[in-house]
Amino acid sequence: MNQISYVIPTLNSAATLDMTLLCLHSQKKVNVNFIVVDSGSTDKTLDICKRWNVKVLYAEPGNMYRAINVGLRECNTEWIGYINSDDWIYPDSLNRLIAWGNSSNADVVYANCDYTDAYGRFMYSFAPPKPNQLIATSRTGELGFAQQSAIFKNSLYQKLTGFNEDYYFVGDREFFIRALNSGAKFTFLSGASVACFRLHSDQLSQTKSQFMQAEGKKIRSELVKEPNLSDWATRIQWRLKNIPNYLLRFLRQSLLSGKATITKSIHAGTHLDSNIAVSSHD
Question: Which fold has domain 2-257?
Answer without folding.
Answer: Spore Coat Polysaccharide Biosynthesis Protein SpsA; Chain A (3.90.550)
